[in-house]
Write a structure and sequence with these properties.
There is one protein chain. It is built from six helices and 27 strands. The chain has two domains: about 1-30; about 70-420, TolB, C-terminal domain (Neuraminidase, 6 Propeller). The protein is an alpha+beta fold. Bound molecules: calcium ion (2 copies). The site of one calcium ion has 7 residues, from helix 5.
């Protein structure tokens, strides 16, 4: 039998071989051959313009992604979000959690959310590819940075604030997944770690606003760059200009949508009492104005640095906030989702006190304004402190999405929340 099989194989190969030769050898034109062959799908595909193929491939890849599985990595059923209390009509959901040390946020035109961190040293990019409101891809854009708290976008470039440097990642949407190398826009800010991490944002004038905190709890250093908000032209990297002074530490600001004026939060000094001084919400009306620190806390002279000082000579806060509440990110509400009464009102992320009894802050609050200025300061989202005093979340930054919903970051649980309204 083996011989029969072998013979059969040889014959078969020979026939196939002969057939192959017979098809190639005769002086029959190739055109005739193609016409006699059954339809060859693969050849037809290859004949299509190259641009046609990637479209088909990417659609197939997208079909294969299990978004629910990808999203599961950024959701956590144990996050006690049900403890959060909101005004009637508002709801809150988790966009992503497990985003370690999530701090400042910036949203690109493509919908990518860039998030800075502090102790983690990383900048994250969060994507929601199927646009269902939940993150399904996390990319680490950069790591091993020096407290990269602040992030801001301008014309497709991502700017990141380290303690003493401003970095630029050009064309970030295209490069974010490939360990992009930044260029240094400016490297001359003080290197102090105390109050050195920075919130940054581009103003209506197109310049980058960069704060420099006091390098202490309460002191009067000689370097006049401390305690300021500066303005940096990122295109030429020239020396920053001081636009406001006498600010202990600001980690959040925004511009009034109608007046264009800069408003900012400021954290008051520690260790002067559980109820003093209040944090501040300030408005810059005259460039270069001085907001009082360290000579005054709100309208009260400091016991060491304020002897004989008239605090009315300094800019006073538009609204006093919770003492030691650590008011950080703030935004004017410019969306269309919330009721009309919220238009141009200010939401503030209060990170929460670290050495006050009882703890205070740990909430998103609302400051209402009218033509005369700030009128009320009230809690808006609360519940990040459990009834037994355990803290599970600390709000850092706020961002108004194009939909009109608010994003809120929380560096304690590493969460990005979305606050929505449904009448
Ligand atoms: Ca998604
Ligand atoms: Ca002040």
């Amino acid at each position: 039998m083996p011989y029969v099989l072998l013979l059969f194989s040889i014959l078969t190969l020979g026939l196939v071989g002969c057939g192959f030769v017979a098809e190639v050898e005769p002086a029959v034109g190739p055109t005739v051959k193609v016409e006699t062959v059954p339809p060859l799908v693969e050849i037809e595909n290859e004949a299509k313009p190259e641009a046609w193929l990637p479209v088909i491939k990417s659609e197939k890849v997208l079909d294969m992604i299990d978004y629910a599985e990808e999203e599961a990595a950024f959701q956590n059923a144990n996050l006690p979000i049900d403890l959060l209390e909101l005004p009637a009509g508002f709801t809150i959901e988790v966009v992503a959690t497990n985003i370690k040390n999530a701090r400042s946020m910036a949203l690109s035109d493509m919908g990518t959310l860039y998030v800075g961190s502090r102790a983690e040293g990383k900048v994250y990019a969060l994507e929601d590819r199927n646009q269902n409101g939940k993150t399904d891809r996390l990319t680490i854009v950069a790591e091993n940075l020096n407290a990269p708290n602040g992030v801001a976008l301008k014309q497709g470039d991502l700017y990141v604030a380290e303690i003493d440097r401003i970095l630029k990642f050009t064309g970030i949407e295209d490069t974010k997944a490939n360990s992009p190398q930044p260029e240094v826009v400016f490297a001359g800010y003080p290197t102090d770690k105390a109050h050195g991490w920075k919130y940054i944002a581009f103003g209506p004038d197109g310049d980058l606003y960069v704060p420099v905190g006091f390098p202490c709890n309460l002191c009067d250093p000689e370097n006049s760059l401390y305690g300021t908000i500066t303005r940096l032209e990122v295109e030429n990297g020239s020396n920053p200009e001081v636009v406001a002074a006498g600010i202990r530490n600001s980690v959040g600001f925004d511009w009034h949508p109608e007046t264009g004026r800069l408003w900012f939060t400021e954290n008051g000094a520690d260790s002067l009492g559980h109820n003093f001084p209040a944090d501040e919400l300030n408005e810059l009306t005259v460039e270069g104005a001085h907001f009082g620190f360290p000579y005054c806390h709100n309208d009260t002279p400091d016991g060491t640095f304020g002897n004989g000082v008239d605090c009315q000579h300094y800019e006073l806060p538009r609204q006093t906030l919770n003492p030691h509440g650590a008011a950080l990110g703030m935004k004017f509400y410019t969306g269309d989702l919330f009721p009309e009464s919220f238009k141009n009102q200010i939401f503030i992320a209060e990170h929460g006190s670290w050495n006050r009894t009882p703890p205070i802050g740990y909430q998103v609050s609302l400051v209402r304004l009218d033509e005369t200025g700030a009128t009320t300061f009230e809690p808006f989202v609360t519940g990040w402190v459990k009834s037994d005093g355990t803290v599970w979340g600390r709000p850092v930054d706020i961002l108004v999405e194009p939909s009109g919903a608010l994003l809120i970051s929380d560096d304690e649980s590493g969460t990005i929340y979305r606050l929505k309204y449904a009448s």
